[in-house]
Amino acid sequence: MILKRKSMRPQRQRAGSGQSDDAGNWDDTLLEAGASLLASRWSRVLVTLAAALLFTSAMTVHLALSKQWVFAILCMGAALALSRMRGRVLTVSLVALSVFISLRYLYWRVTQTLSFTNSLDRTFGYLLLLAEGYAVLMLLCSYFQTLWPLHRRPAPLPADTSDWPTVDVYIPTYNEPLDVVRQSVLAATLLDWPADKLRVYLLDDGRRDEFRAFCEQAGVDYLTRPDNTHAKAGNLNAALPKTSGEFIAVFDCDHVTTRSFLQVCMGWFLKDPKMAMVQTPHVFYSPDPFERNLETYRKVPNEGDLFYGVLQNGNDLWNAAFFCGSCAVLRRSALEDVGGVATESVTEDALTALKMSMKGYNTGYLAIPQAAGLATESLGRHIGQRIRWARGMAEIFRQFNPLLISGLTIAQRLCYLSAMMHFFFGLPRIVFLITPMAFLFFGAHVFHASALMVLAYVVPHLVISSISASRIQGRFRHSYWSEVYETVLAWYVILPALQAVLRPGSRGFNVTSKGGVIRQSFLDWAMARPYIVLLIINLAGFAVGVAGLIRSPGWPEAMSILFNLVWVTYNVMNLSAAAGVAAESKQLRLTPRVQIELPAAVRLADGSRVMCQTSDYSQGGLGLVLPENAPLPQRGERVVVSVFRDDYEGKFPAEVQVCRGRTVGVSFPALTIDQERDLMRVTFSRADSWVGSWGRYRPDRPLRSLFEVLGVGMRGLKELGRHLLMGGRERFARSAEAQASELGSKQS
Q: What is the CATH number of domain 161-377?
């Protein structure tokens, strides 16, 4: 394995990896030393057996309380020391320590803490053990996927463009508004690819005349079909026999591609004849409900950043990169060989990639953002999308269990298993949220061990796994935020996932709506109700625990109460944050703005020209920052705005909408289709539109992240109280109005 990984190092990309050249040389030295030591097959066997024996012996040894605490402190100190040193081998060492400590904790749980004496203890105790086992399993899978990411680089294309293949661009749509779809279509027409080798197709399952007319204006092909069988997968499959390109690029209708997309992706298909699919990241230029309602946009990595920033790079090492339904290119012959886009699951993209892997094709991932789209606007839509993903992955797990099907390597089986098992997180998360109440309300003992002994095993497990995860994922996932996301989604994804395992295909496909506004702030009571119920239960448990401490119990019982109170406090923090996500913030912009500084100019009504720069742009307008002492236009004044990209100047008739200090906001009320395309060329379609901002978060620090999540929880409690108070006032006002109306009726 060491020799294999070393041979792959020329393909790895050090830029942005956080490792210095010295760290890389240190890694190379250690790898070369290890390779020479393990050159003999028998040497490798003996070393492996010896390591396994030592690992198992150390993992299973039982220590007295004081010795276990000393051991735990030494291990946590070693983890902290390793986390402060650079080098891939040191990262592997840190992860190995985390695996050892977590498995040691699980072994201790199974062998030392299950001496239950009644059915209540037994029920909650085994539920908790299963939840912990699931958590450790997912931790091990995530380490396997992310420990050694590939960081694939683009492969060069031939200098002669006549050798480039033909490409069809598919943009499927169903019920999305034309304003959302049109910029995606126009951006696709700007792709830097020979015109005679590129065709753009809008696949309209809504069969709308206005879309057909727009395609005629934009110079793209319009395809439809008489029904909507198999939803998006069926829409894509219906286009296959009507088109002929050697490769197919797929974009969701809200994803706007940069001009460089094909030149970044296509080289790998020419380099590797077995390459069936190349995926790029999904990034969003609007905040999702978590980011908007918790005010973390561009501050804390969002839910998808971990997958596209870390997991896909790790999957790529094992030839198990997933197709994600958009921002990807597929080889037509490979797609046809697996029977087209899969229709057996509502997550047709992941299943299509799985089928390609089963057939022996290669898949690749390039962590270079080349398109961006709209995030879901409301929590309800966001949860609906995740429900579909959970149901689809559970369907795949039942019908195409990666442990049982043929054609996959062991590594591919583990990568797919991890992805499928992830969506069962709802049940363990709910178990973690309710288990401490079993002790606080009913006196159930889920651990048959002292609180200090439990802490001696669980604290190093949690601390070291947190340090290791932060080391690997810190650029794309901050500590403790996963629990917030899982708490919000747990109640909603678990039932569809279980239903899909028991009754696959029993529900239809739902399209995730994009675009729209939220005209006033409100608390989504329908979405928040489960969190509020669980929050009330945990707060009641906290009150019962405090009352128990006031009664001055003995030392062992007091420690057990304190242990569960800390657990409940963490639950309250996450549940309060979940309630905060359900407090929808006002969003009046129909077209989100992207912050960027570009050279620009304004020609005023009097003919004068002012050089300036943009502050932001959107589909329908620009923000401009004018220099000091420059004349300012008046609101409603017609101007001509120029935006520059290298030597290209795009000119657009505009109308001034707002002037604030030196910042001027303009809109484009009457652009021709060619002017819309030019505006796209100098804004959304720039090759560097998304690369510079993706993953540019401050480094993760677990303790700081913990306090951030605590702050979010406090804010969520405040929002919940405010909306409850407002709701009470509204109900009182309605009641008073009804009484006054009734009194007036009686008097009349």
A: 3.90.550.10
> Using an 8 Å Cβ cutoff, are 571 and 538 in contact?
yes
Element (H, E) at 672: none
- Answer whether 123's CB lies under 8 Å from 235's CB: no
* C-alpha angle 145-147-153 in degrees, rounded to nearest 5: 85
Per DSSP, which regions of 176-305 are E strands? 198-204, 221-223, 247-250, 256-257, 275-279, 283-284
* DSSP alpha helix (H) spans, 147-230: 178-188, 209-218
SS3 689: coil
Distance between CA atoms of residues 86 and 80, nearest Å? 12
Catalytic residue annotation: 205, 349
Amino acid identity, position 356: M
0.85 exceeded by pTM: yes
CATH number of 597-682: 2.40.10.220
Residue 714 · residue 579 · CB < 8 Å = no
In whole angstroms, give the CA distance from residue 600 to residue 432. 54
Tell me how far apart the alpha carbons of residues 78 and 74 are, in angstroms, rounded to a whole number: 6
Q: How many helices (H) and strands (E) does the chain have?
A: 25, 19
Q: Which residue has the higher pLDDT, 327 or 712?
A: 327
Q: What is the pLDDT of residues 77-86, one digit of tens each?
A: 999 999 999 8
Q: Is the distance from CB of 472 to CB of 91 less than 8 angstroms?
A: yes
The distance of Cα 93 from the centroid of its chain, to the nearest Å, equals 27
**Domain-wise residue ranges, the chain:** 1-61, 70-145+431-495+522-584+710-719, 161-377, 597-682
Q: Report residue 266 as tokens.
A: 């296509």
Q: How far apart are CA 414 and CA 403, in angstroms?
A: 8
Neighbouring C-beta atoms of residue 264, cutoff 10 Å: 22
- CA–CA gap between residue 609 and residue 639 (Å, rounded): 10
Q: Are 222 and 653 in contact (CB under 8 A)?
A: no
CB 681 within 8 A of CB 259: yes
Best CA proximity match to 480, nearest among 461, 494, 465? 465
- 665 beta partners: 623, 658
Q: Which residue has the higher pLDDT, 644 or 377?
A: 644
- Rama region for 172: left / alpha / beta (φ>0; ψ in -120 to 50; rest): beta
How many residues are present in the chain? 748
Q: Using an 8 Å Cβ cutoff, are 390 and 382 in contact?
A: no
* For the ranges 231-235, 380-384, 630-634, the one whose mean pLDDT is highest: 231-235
Q: How far is CA 483 from CA 258, 425, 578, 705, in A?
A: 34, 10, 10, 12
For 593-638, the pLDDT digits (tens) are 888 889 999 999 888 999 999 999 987 899 999 999 888 898 999 9
Annotate 364-415 with DSSP letters as a single string. Answer: EE-----EEEPPPSSHHHHHHHHHHHHHHHHHHHHHS-TTTSSS--HHHHHH
Would the CA dihedral through 335, 336, 338, 341 be positive or negative?
positive
Q: How many CB atoms lie within 10 A of CB 719?
A: 22
* Helix or strand holding residue 713 (H, E): helix 702-747
Q: Which two tokens stand for residue 688?
A: 């560097």
674 CB burial (10 A radius; 0-12, 13-18, 19+):
exposed
The answer to whether domain 161-377 and domain 597-682 are alike in fold is no
Tell me which DSSP letter residue 634 carries: P
236 and 223 in contact (C-beta within 8 Å)?
A: no
Flag whether pLDDT at 738 surpasses 70.
no
Distance of CA 294 to the CA centre of its chain: 16
pLDDT one-digit tens code per residue, 325-365: 999 999 999 999 999 999 999 899 999 999 999 999 999 99
Q: How many CB atoms lie within 10 A of CB 409?
A: 12
